[in-house]
Amino acid sequence: MASRTETILRHGFEDFREFVNPLIALRAELSGEPATMVRALDGRLVDRQGQAIEDFHGTQAFGHRNRAITQAVREFLDSDSPSWFPSRVNPYAGSLARRLCERANRTLQGERHAYSNAFFSSSGSEAVEAAIKLARIVTGKKRVLSLDGAYHGCTMGSCALMAKGPYRDPFGPHVPGLSSIPFADSDALAAAFAAGDVAAVVVEPIQLEGGVRPLTKEFVELLCTLTKEHGALLVADEVQTGLGRSGKFLASETWPRRPDAILLAKHLGGGLLPISAMLTRRELFEQAYGQNFETSEAHNCTFSGSAAVCVAAHAALDLLTDELIDRVDRIGTALRRAIQESLASLPLFAEVRGAGLALGIVLRSTDHPWLSFEHFGMGDLAHQPTVGLLLCHRLYKRGFFCFVCGHDWSVLRIQPRFTIEEERLAEFVRALQEELSYLCQLV
Ligand SMILES: Cc1ncc(COP(=O)(O)O)c(C=O)c1O
Prior knowledge:
CATH topology of the largest domain: Aspartate Aminotransferase, domain 2
Structural class: alpha/beta
Strand content: 15-25%
CATH superfamily of the largest domain: Type I PLP-dependent aspartate aminotransferase-like (Major domain)
Bound molecules: pyridoxal-5'-phosphate
Distance between the termini: 53 Å
Number of strands: 19
Largest sheet: 7 strands, mixed
């Protein structure tokens, strides 16, 4: 008899189309995305046709179904340890909080003590919500700012801090007091502080979905200064950039002032289980939730830091050694250089930017009528650039699952696993060069 897993892998893809999201299924079909993944193999995925594919989405920093992580979770499941603690005094959350704070305090510039408290939830968006609420309760102010082009998640608070567009606009009215200012614009930041009502500024050190755009040094310096002067919380959304992705443990760890809150998610659960965290200082937590017993649990979620996910996070941190982070920095720098050199002469290539293994390849657009979304029968996408998606389509066939940035389809987002072999990256650069050259001949 087929196991439950086998049955799901046989019928679940069609069930997804019917019961979850038909348009996502149709899009995958039309764009030739390898969607019927049935196996994980050495960090990659294998589809029904037997094609192995390297996933560049970035959630699987240790490779799909990393053995050490599955083993740690299996050992926990085979034990008789409690998994959920009715008193909420949870040793798994406790030990993970200690470990994350201690690791975050150790930076490339030595020990920079900043974090002594953690709040856990399941998604990046919930970590953003935790920061919004912390900022309001600690400062007594209402206004929370983000930067244009941001991606902070889809719950109502984080959605209000998102880039304008389909992820945000249809869902108004938005949470009052939450809005964005122009990206990395020092004058706009200074003007926003003039009214004296800012509770927090939430920023991504590098906007990934916004087009892999790093904040400038000048803007970061002003951000650090103004938030301190005005007693506003500086919140670094490191859901994408954190946990080694930028070639440092935290992309913000060398900023002149350490953020009051750091948000982590994505591969915190080893890519296997969902967990997110907000790291902050004990004084801030105590101001917010430590004044009396009634409010001590005023912000919580039922499965905050439940055991299995914390075990997966511990296993992920075991893997995330200083050597591995150095490797991300080294191979990321080499990859960026190789991409720059091999694509430099191609007219559809503009630049490559980012840090570590969070790179963005900026592509020029074309107005060739055959290469428009209208030509492919997707008129509602007529305003969007096509070259990035056409390139993705061609790269799927070469075994690489690439993505364009959610808010900027002219940028190809490259976020390989940290353990990827250097030969495979060289193979990727070759495929990229050949496929973009092919598209250049068409325009
Ligand atoms: C920077 C950033 N913050 C927050 C989120 C939201 O995370 P989640 O999808 O887990 O809610 C994302 C998701 O991609 C993100 O990129």
